[in-house]
Amino acid sequence: MILAIAWKNIWRNRLRSLIVIAATAIGVAAGTYSASLMFGVATQKINAAISNEVSHIQLHHPRFRENYEIQYTLPEAEKMIRDISRLPEVKSVAARTIITGMMMSAASATGIKINGIDPVVERKTTSLYTKISDTSGAYFGDGLRNPVVISQKLAEKLNVHLKSKLVLRFQSADGSLIEGAFKICGIYRTSNGMFDQLNVFVRQSDLAALLGNAPVHEIVVLLHDNSDIKKVMPVLKQKYPAAEVKDWQELFPELGMLTAMLTTMNYMILGIILAALAFGIVNTMLMIVLERSRELGMLMAVGMNKHKVFRMIMLESILLSLCGGIAGIVISFFLIQLSARTGIDLSAFGQGFEAMGYDPVMYPELRPGFFVGTVIMVIFTGILSSLYPARKALAINPALAVKNE
Amino acid sequence: MEIIQIKDLHKTYDEGKIEVHAVNGISLTVAEGEFTAIVGPSGSGKTTLLNMIGGLDRPSGGEVIINGTEITKLSSRELINFRLNNIGFVFQSYNLIPVLTAHENVEFIMQLQNKPQTERHKRTIELLESVGLGDKMDVRPRYLSGGQQQRVAVARALASKPRFILADEPTANLDSKATANLLEIMERLNHEEKMTFLFSTHDQRVVNKAHRVITIEDGIVISDVEQQHIVHPSDC
Ligand SMILES: Nc1ncnc2c1ncn2[C@@H]1O[C@H](COP(=O)(O)OP(=O)(O)O)[C@@H](O)[C@H]1O
Ligand SMILES: [Mg+2]
User: Is the ipTM of this complex over 0.90?
Assistant: First the structure.
């Protein structure tokens, strides 16, 4: 009953209510839409990292990741690969030889990480091969001797082109320096500048020819589904107690925490928007109480108790903010649908995004959970905004309010 | 049986340096079934007196005993509940909730009393028909005339099954036809339902209808008389 009266009451001054609702709607739409953009960016970054680079799970010698020292290899890697491949959740498994070293062109030199891979297996596991444009060569396989795939960034830095010659220099396990001449067969470019700056790819077999053997430093495991990580991790840990088994969140903690951090931040931004809107709602509710003081006095005179009066004012405030909140969410929902397909291209606004590892085209991501959280916060805003006006309403003296003047 | 009993009632307003003795020692009793008018010029203390009897205002001194309960001793929470269940109110204006229909306005009081829906519905229809508004059930107050609004207010006041109805100048905003009509309805309810009415007025035509007239001036009773009444043929 009180809910019905409260609902009818907010439409008594239609224009005023609509203004409050519109303001709330715009604020909530802006807050939730910008949140969806940030969530989208985070998801893009995480997905890119998983598919280009990390995969879901990696195995190393427990000391390998400290300094990438060549002697910390995974023993019996071939058997491990075979066994892991048999797990039903596993999509593919790739083994890598990883050596830090120098890359030199005629013009200059730079420190890099050499990834010795099996192109056929690697293609199934990571999608770096898709990051080579049609005019930038190919991901191995055109019969060149000692082919190497480097990034656009490194190519510019070393002033080299497709088919240019490069020298890779590194130390072998016994400390002797090894040098090999390679020819650029492909140039890639990902959205993660830091990754690009560091990583070059050669065939594991070519490295083996230089080293005399093919040590395996890293086994990367791609699963069918990200959510299977929880199931596969304990299995691998138990099976290979001598190895370090880590999922992508552990390997890149900043990626793992990105979503949680963004969620907190987005709720804070929304909170600030709602706090600003609350002033408008408080003001409106105070006007409502003032205008209706005679009516409120009459209601208390005829026997409506303070609880119910309080509840009525509070419900009016909640309904006002909730109407705005829901309208805002609907607007934001359509904006997300509208821009999710094409994305929003920010490359015109600056080159900084890629350098920081972000894709310049943002795709907003719909998060129903965040919408639910938004609705709860909106209701909370309505409640808080009504406290002071509702107390004012209770202070009305029915005797004065019903006086015959 | 006495429903209202007031003893040496005082109300003093402190207006800066001047003290206003709006009610200055009134004692009287009202028995069940009375149809009594409080009469007096503007500013004589009628509203102040009725508000104290209705538990809307606290006296500065004296007692108000309604149906055996000394209401000035009730907490404000108890007082609201007491008003809801014992007193029907009709004010001069601002009686109704504008967003509700006539039906909903009458029903509202019974909702506050947590009466079951079927009972509420039945009683609302009965009451609105008895005040001649059977055809205006679903109309909101602003589409009703002043007289019709006051009749809804009377129906609303009756809805809670109060011990008596307190009406402060219920006809002050009405034309003579609507006044006569409202008085006729009140009188009939008094006669047929034995509902006690205590109302204030400064309109002589209304005074003429009352069975008992209490005249106050400057916050004290100056006369209290029973009036002979012309019996309507329909009353026989
Ligand atoms: N809230 C108040 N504060 C101060 N004085 C008041 C107040 N209410 C009424 N009075 C004074 O009390 C006297 C009686 O007023 P009231 O009971 O309204 O008379 P009536 O209803 O007969 O016109 C008047 O002099 C009025 O000015
Ligand atoms: Mg008065």
Answer: yes
Quick one: which H or E segment has residue A263? helix A253-291
A1 vs B25, higher pLDDT: B25
B77 touches chain A (CB under 8 A): yes
Q: What 3-state DSSP class applies to A111?
A: strand
Residue ranges covered by each domain of chain A: 2-49+255-401, 62-242
User: Domains of chain B (ranges plus CATH)?
Assistant: 2-95+161-235 (3.40.50.300)
pTM of the model: 0.83
Q: What tokens does B41 get? A: 């010029």
Q: How many helices (H) and strands (E) does chain B have?
A: 7, 10
User: Is A399 within 8 Å of B112 when comparing Cβ atoms?
Assistant: no
Residue-wise pLDDT for A211-229, tens only, equals 888 899 999 999 998 889 9
Instruction: Report DSSP state, residue B163.
Output: S
- Chain-chain contact of A398 with B56 (C-beta, under 8 angstroms): yes
User: Cα dist. B30→B27, B37, B67, B154 in Å?
Assistant: 10, 11, 10, 20
C-beta of B51 in contact with ligand 1 (< 6 A): no
CA distance B66 to A80: 93
Residue nearest to atom 14 of ligand 1 (CA): B45
**What is the reported pLDDT for A402?**
74
Cβ(B123)–Cβ(B110) below 8 Å: yes
State how far the Cα of B38 lies from the Cα of B176, in Å rounded to an integer. 19
Look at ligand 1, atom 11, and give the residue with the nearest C-alpha: B22
Q: What is the pLDDT of residues A291-321, one digit of tens each?
A: 999 999 999 999 999 999 999 999 999 999 9
Can you tell me which residue has the tokens 């005399």?
A: A212
Taking CB atoms and an 8 Å cutoff, what residues of chain A touch B113? 303
Candidates B83, B104, B107; CA nearest to B159 is: B107
- The DSSP code sequence of A368-395 is HHHHHHHHHHHHHHHHHHHHHHHHHHHT
Cβ of B43 closer than 6 Å to ligand 1, yes or no, is yes
Nearest bound ligand to CA B220?
1
Contact A399 B56 (CB under 8 A): yes
Strand order of the sheet with strand B18-31? Answer: B18-31, B2-15, B61-66, B69-70
Three-class secondary structure of residue A69 per DSSP: coil
- Chain B: closest CA distance from residue A402 (Å): 7
For the Cβ of B53 lying below 6 angstroms from any atom of ligand 1, the answer is no
Q: Tell which residue, B198, B109, B95, B196, has the closest CA to residue B147.
A: B95
